[in-house]
Amino acid sequence: PAYEAIWGRTCASIYDSPQSWAEAIYPEDREQVIDAATTRQEKGEYDEIYRITRPDGSLRWIHDRAFPVRDANGKIYRLAGIAEDITERKRAEDALRRTEQLYRRAIIGAGAVPYVWDFKTKTYLFMGEEIGSLIGYTSPEMVEGIWRRITQESVMMGESAGLSLEEASVRFKSGKIKVWRCDYHITTRQGQLRWVSDVAVANHDEFGQLISSMGILQDISDRKQM
After folding, report:
1. Is 131 in contact with 217 (CB distance < 8 Å)?
2. Tens digit of pLDDT for each residue in 45-83?
3. Residues 136-140: contacts with CB under 8 Å, at least 24 apart
């Protein structure tokens, strides 16, 4: 019965014309879905997300899965499946994606580089590709650990003012320092010294243990010179 609510067509119409469900598929998605249905359903590999157009012209997002049903001899005699309306989820994902894009544009516009640092492995889980224009090294090189070799000195600021890098790290992990703020020198691939501002916040697991930090790096060489 949910077919009538989702597709906006009667169940009787699909019994009379079994392929009518495919006629409603959005034109740009139709070929891919039909190809998957004809080649993957009997293998149990059919798992598609696509759009449909309802009779009133509105679009809905569908998550469609199908599985072969076999008889006692192992012969496929039926396909069973479920088609789920995921429109609201897709809208929420799109809204989140747009928000992330806005934040990313703001960060890039400020000349900053986003990153995620893992405290267990002591490596970067993620480093924005903008790091290349900042220091000449690529994101993969940063993740692989080049950062340790190009850092020259650290000057702690904010809540961690007056602390050594090691002391500040211990307090940050324990939660005594809520926001990590640090200015330090780095050596670019070209051999130049640049000042970088590093600001990060802690990310804890469900047990309250610090697992990573999320932050931004920003070139403040001009400001330091002034």
Report:
1. yes
2. 899 999 999 999 999 999 999 999 999 999 999 999 999
3. 136/188, 136/189, 136/190, 137/188, 137/189
